[in-house]
Every structure is written in C-alpha cells, then in structure tokens.
Request: fold
Amino acid sequence: MTSHFSFNNVYHHNQAVWDRMAREHCDWSRPVTTETIEAARQGQWRVQLIPSELPSGWLDDVNGIRVLCLAASGGQQAPVLAAAGAEVVVLDASIEQLALDEMVAKRDNLVLKTVLGDMQDLSAFEDESFDLIFHPISNLYIPDIRKVWAECFRVLRKGGKLLSSFYNPVVFVFDRSLELAERGLMKPAFTLPYADITDLDAEEINKKLAKNEALVFGHSLAEQISGQLEAGLMLTGFDEAFQPAPRFLIDKYIPTFIATCSVKPV
Reply:
C-alpha cells in the first residue's frame, strides 16, 4: 500500500483532517477563554502535555523566554504561554488550527507568531533560536520522528528544554475489534513500529480515508526516547498518565500517555 499512498500523501491528508477537526472544535481545537488569559497574565496558568499536571521543575516560569509551540496550535497552549510572558512562535501543519491561536491573540491583545509548516522541517528557524519547545502529542502523524528530535536539538539554545508527549506504543499493537473489546479481550495484531499505510490493508485504509480520519504511525519507545538521546538531548524527566476517556481496552490497565523533559547540554 505504501507505493500507492506515499508519506507525502499522508502529510497532506492529515493536514486536511486537522483543518476539519479545527472547524469542528475537537478537544485540541477549543480555544481558551478570555478569563483563562487574564489569569495567566496574573501568574495563574497551566498548560498540558498529558492529562495531568506538569511535574514540578519542568515549566515553572516562562516570563521573558522564547518558546516554540511545535505542532501545538489550536488556541490553547500558545496564547496561555504568551499571556504568561513568553515570546511565542507556533508551528503547525494546519492553517485552521493556527487560525485559532491568531483569533485568541487578536481577541485578547496578545503577541504571538504563527508559522505553517511540517514539524520534521524547522528550517524557518535559525540554530539555537528557542529556550523551550513545547510539543504535545502529535508525532504519531509523521513517519520519521528522528528528524523532529534532530531539528529540536538544532533550534534549542544550550540549556534549553524540550517538553514532549506521545502515546505508549502498546496502544497500536492490538486488534481494534469492538466485539473483542466488549468481551474484555485483547488480541495482539501488529508489531512495532506501526504504520497505517503499511499495516492496514487497502480496504481498511480506504475506510479511514472515507471517514476523513488521520493516518497514524505508532513509533517505538526506542524512536521516542533513544531518538532524543541520539539527537544529543539529555533526558531529565519522565511522566505518565492514564487516558481519561479510554478508547481502547488497554487504556484501562496502563497509563498510555507519556511525557518527557529533555535538555540540550550546555
């Protein structure tokens, strides 16, 4: 199937899917309120990598630092960080998601910059441009996350942080049969790393396309964590959280959200 649906096709397909999801105000496309922005201006703010509070020391103060919200648009994290005093740039593949950040910025008199682009290619930015990269769950939509880690390392200043989150890849291993789930059964069906375009047959892929669903990649923990280390980053924090609204049976048994804090060595 790969020869018929290329990685480039995946990028443009997922771009269109997120434009639609932004218009439909999915969970990651619901802009924060003016009250939330005003609270952030007063020092009362929070942003989420996973469905839990950020661990102490990961992101205690952003006043005066330069932040890249990477594949993190939608009118949520970026405006809050800007209101808390950060100089914020948002890069995302979805113009409709970026428009939500722009809407909040205009509504609440915030300064932030939006950039349309691919998280695998940060060539729009100079080396050592940012003090912090905030990168919530999104790299399941691209084939090569090692490119992301390498680019993050390049654009971070020495001592800068990368806060990233992703799914535990175990969620991609099991058969997604609703009948099995209703019987409390989990049937391993796929090996890791996983990719819709290579692990699903043509009929299953066409069903996803017809429903305008994103095509995803289940990257291994080696890609997610060793990939950061190989890029030159130093892992300084690790966190997990349970899925608050389980989609798969496995979500009920292990925390399937993972967050990491990494630093570019001085």
User: Anything to note?
Assistant: The chain has a mean pLDDT of 95. Residues 35 and 43 are 13 Å apart (CA to CA). The chain has nine helices and nine strands. The two ends are 44 Å apart (CA to CA).
